[in-house]
Amino acid sequence: MAPPRVQSAETSATTGAKSAAARKGAAVEGAGPSPRDVDAVGGPASKRVLRSQGRRTMRRLLDAAMIAFDQRGYYDTRINDVVKIAKTSHGTFYLYFSNKEDLLRALVTEAGIDAQHLAGALDRPPELGGTPQWSDVRGWIAAYSDLWVRYAPLFRAWTDLATIDPSLLEILRQTLTLMSDALERQIGLGASDRTIDSNTAGMAVLAMLDRFHYMREFVGQPVDDVALDTLATMIHRSLFEGTA
Amino acid sequence: MAPPRVQSAETSATTGAKSAAARKGAAVEGAGPSPRDVDAVGGPASKRVLRSQGRRTMRRLLDAAMIAFDQRGYYDTRINDVVKIAKTSHGTFYLYFSNKEDLLRALVTEAGIDAQHLAGALDRPPELGGTPQWSDVRGWIAAYSDLWVRYAPLFRAWTDLATIDPSLLEILRQTLTLMSDALERQIGLGASDRTIDSNTAGMAVLAMLDRFHYMREFVGQPVDDVALDTLATMIHRSLFEGTA
Amino acid sequence: MAPPRVQSAETSATTGAKSAAARKGAAVEGAGPSPRDVDAVGGPASKRVLRSQGRRTMRRLLDAAMIAFDQRGYYDTRINDVVKIAKTSHGTFYLYFSNKEDLLRALVTEAGIDAQHLAGALDRPPELGGTPQWSDVRGWIAAYSDLWVRYAPLFRAWTDLATIDPSLLEILRQTLTLMSDALERQIGLGASDRTIDSNTAGMAVLAMLDRFHYMREFVGQPVDDVALDTLATMIHRSLFEGTA
Amino acid sequence: MAPPRVQSAETSATTGAKSAAARKGAAVEGAGPSPRDVDAVGGPASKRVLRSQGRRTMRRLLDAAMIAFDQRGYYDTRINDVVKIAKTSHGTFYLYFSNKEDLLRALVTEAGIDAQHLAGALDRPPELGGTPQWSDVRGWIAAYSDLWVRYAPLFRAWTDLATIDPSLLEILRQTLTLMSDALERQIGLGASDRTIDSNTAGMAVLAMLDRFHYMREFVGQPVDDVALDTLATMIHRSLFEGTA
DNA sequence: TATGAATGAGTGTTCATTCAT
DNA sequence: TATGAATGAACACTCATTCAT
Domains in chain C, please, with CATH? Predict the structure, then answer.
């Protein structure tokens, strides 16, 4: 029914960026959107085995939630908003999720899985071996950008998600660490000098990528290829230049 | 949840960083914590002219709010929490602020003023003229770090603040732009090559600094001098190295 | 305070008056209590489509409000009082009305509709054609009296209702004008002399009827047939006597 | 300072009516506005002996209340509104009145005294002896109209005042009875036939006069001489015509 | 006598969650 | 499996009244 993504791939600014990345740099395989079929999330809240109708309803609710969070933010989203968008009823919601938090957890888990794929993809030797090249960096960035855009409502709300419940916080922390560590290892490959602490650097790169997307959106200039190229240059210079 | 991090400058983790910065790099003058006397905020919500007692109560409420936001986040803070911390009554709160949002606006305005001071301080020629040196960069970072720590609860909630009301959003957008532009100008001083779009770079630096603080706090390793040094090196390399 | 006077037509004090009127004078057809079935008020506050259960609950709330307004007056009635009488919950109330004002508007609208029926019934030629006879006048009075008694709590509160919100004021003004104009036309039928301004006279008759009911109730002598007969005589004399 | 009347005599529609009445009909002596000097209301709430400054403050509060009631109605008037208009402070209010009701009682008492004067004035033989003439009736009406206009905010709120507290209710009932009885006696002077119950008639006349003023104001056409003349004719006809 | 500040009981309203059909 | 209706705890906000100066 409704497309599972808040922004359809066709209109997404950085999807363009991504395919550009595929040309310009090395694509990070496996980081693309995992085909999100109806079974993707087992049924976080219920033990019930879902039949196909049930699975469809659940998917509708998840997608609706994503739309609602995108429009009003997590805190200002009411169960009411979600069920209205999903064109279902209040009671039905609680057939699939035990509460709002549970719904959120399901979404974050989905996003976490995609993020872990990305981390896994990062965690492999550079194209030409040895020190990562500009094109490698550009590839990471493209992949991250894609992820960000796909889950923008969750990324935007990140800060608050963390305060909502411990289990959520744990997912977030693990995902963050996973990606940060993967980056750290890549950075370690090239860092000849000891002026740079690769642990710090990994997180700094992640921080920049994450917040840059948010800020650009905030000031009304969504990220484009030019911007991503500049980021790639900055990161490559700061980490790998002169280490040849 | 998070430890109450709203503290006097003397005990702040990164205050150490700051004084270190003063030694290691060039301090950015004027960016230090403006002595926050009782008159700082005129009286954002009320037209009432406040006498000294009234001003003190208002200050108590603002400080209490900062503590409460720090402990539970904006959304989970109840007016009740604020007045309890401020040791005053429910009714008194509404004597000074028309609602929670209004209170938030007052705090954000305060922070915005400090941020503008910082932006102003950034906007001056490097110590030795010409291209900014590592010590200059280290100075910026120290100043920003200080600001972040002082207003951590607000910075953390940034994303959501923006969704709360338009006037708030405007303050945030202006502040962000101001700082980003100041950085952009500094970056323009050194960028000999055109591979880097200094506008993008300015925001990227800001993004990195902002989110890095949040992430480190998030994983339980608050920012320290070592980290800030690494950031300085990364930024300096990415923007000014080889442009001598 | 005042005895709960919201009763079924069968027990109403002036219903006696009305049936008396039917004997003594010409009944004003169509002005009787329209059978107030459950669908009477569509659903003033909500866009929700109500099923039969919902409609019953709404009716319960409307009736309860009438009782509560009768007992304590509009201003001193708490939502709490209404829901207690309706034997429902606080939350349910807000499912049907957006607030106390909205509830009031629904009631006034209902009353307005009945009043318009009455005005319509007034607006027809006298029984014998030509100048209205005493029995015609007695008929008007009986009909009005019935209306007043049925909606006594609203009539009593009239003055204040007008100050509550503009939409309410508009309903009231229209209803008043409608009835006043209908009377004016009737009066015009008989007024041979120009000493009497029939516009003024129409409103004066309405004023007398309305306030007389209130005052008698106020001094503890509810209106009876004797009183209504005297009123009929006064009005008939003042407007139509000697105009044969 | 502020004129003690809500409408100054010069601009009042029916003050014109009154002086007209003085020409057209027989003035009802003693019913004019009693000169309302500063001592008029002793100090209903406090036992304190007021000095001249205190008396002035009290007067300011009473006048302010009248203005506020006129603008927003009794229920929507806050102590705050009153003290703002009186240009005094919250605390001061409670120096003179023990609460809002007390303030209201003071005003109603004032009005009650004026009304009793009017009733007394009514209670005297007609100008020419025997049956009251048109000019007598016109005189009553003029006097009543004056009273109504002067205390319009209270007359308008009448219905609700009655529900506020028993002592208020008592004042109102007495005043109403007093006037109604005076009228009844006048009517009795002329009623040759027994078709009319003079008790009913007295209250009916009062009812008409009272509500007519309100309704005309309500539809935006304040009472004028033409209207009062028509009322006089109607009342005279209904009660005294053909009884010569 | 006057005043700005403080108080807190009382009330309206929201909304996640459960129930009955 | 789906739904409209019902619930009530939780919270925001008001405002008459008291207090301290």
Answer: 14-240 (1.10.357.10)
